[in-house]
Write a structure and sequence with these properties.
One of its GO terms (cellular component) is basolateral plasma membrane. This protein has 238 residues and is mainly alpha-helical. It has helices at 6-37, 39-45, 57-85, 88-134, 144-155, 163-171, 183-187, 192-237, and strands at 48-49, 52-53.
Length: 238
């Protein structure tokens, strides 16, 4: 015998929430794949300076997002099917998966918060090393110039956040994007340290919003799944 009354409303409400959860998983998976193949990040994070590879801390977070999105789609489908079938076993499994997924999201959020500044810092250090090599007398002995030009062309910037970065466009036009010389370009130079910060902070902000929305949906689903489970158990007694 199926559930009736308020429990039936909860059943369909849980189905709707799970459908939204499934869609959210698909959106997160799509956003993660877009971030993984975004032209700006791939152009920079695939660079290699001699034997040193660009920092891949950012991609670790992206791979976590891809896994989370795929799992969310599976869990969302499990919840939808369990709610429609009124299966205590499926709903219990769904609740367990939600708890594990929620714990993983909290852990990933803590990891991201701790490492959010480190990601940009590592990339800036990598850029500074390449910039120093590009200014050496024998540029043919390293690929620093190619790495620096990739940074400059991708981010539309020139030089680090110091005096050398300010004067570089004036005497090394082979490293910097060609721009019209104006007083503003000298007074307010666009250094690459600032552009790197903007690049990663903007993407992490997008990830943070998605994580908060998903966390709220998961909390509601955990509550509804337990209420529905109790309703199914009680209805089976009569």
């Amino acid at each position: 015998m199926g559930v009736e009354g308020c429990t039936k409303c909860i059943k369909y409400l849980l189905f709707v929430f799970n459908f939204i959860f499934w869609l959210a998983g698909g959106i997160i998976l799509g956003v993660a794949l877009w971030l993984r193949h975004d032209s700006q990040t791939t152009s920079i994070l695939y660079l290699q300076l001699g034997d040193k590879q660009a920092p891949n801390t950012f991609y670790v977070g992206i791979y976590i997002l891809i896994a989370v999105g795929a799992v969310m789609m599976f869990v969302g489908f499990l919840g939808c099917y369990g709610a429609i079938q009124e299966s205590q076993c499926l709903l219990g499994t769904f609740f367990t998966c939600l708890v594990i997924l929620f714990a993983c999201e909290v852990a990933a959020g803590i990891w991201g918060f701790v490492n959010k500044d480190q990601i940009a810092k590592d990339v800036k250090q990598f850029y500074d090393q390449a910039f120093q090599q590009a200014l050496m007398a024998e540029p043919e002995m390293n690929n620093g110039k190619a790495v620096v030009k990739t940074f400059h062309e991708t981010l539309d910037c020139c030089g680090p956040d110091n005096v050398i970065g300010v004067i570089t466009p004036l005497w090394r036009d082979d490293l910097c994007p060609k721009k019209d010389f104006t007083l503003k370009s000298v007074v307010e130079p666009t250094n690459c340290h600032k552009k790197i910060d903007e690049l990663f902070s903007g993407k992490l902000y997008l990830i943070g919003i998605a994580a908060i929305v998903v966390a709220v949906i998961m909390i509601f689903e955990m509550i509804l799944s337990m209420v529905l489970c109790c309703g199914i158990r009680n209805s089976s007694v009569y």
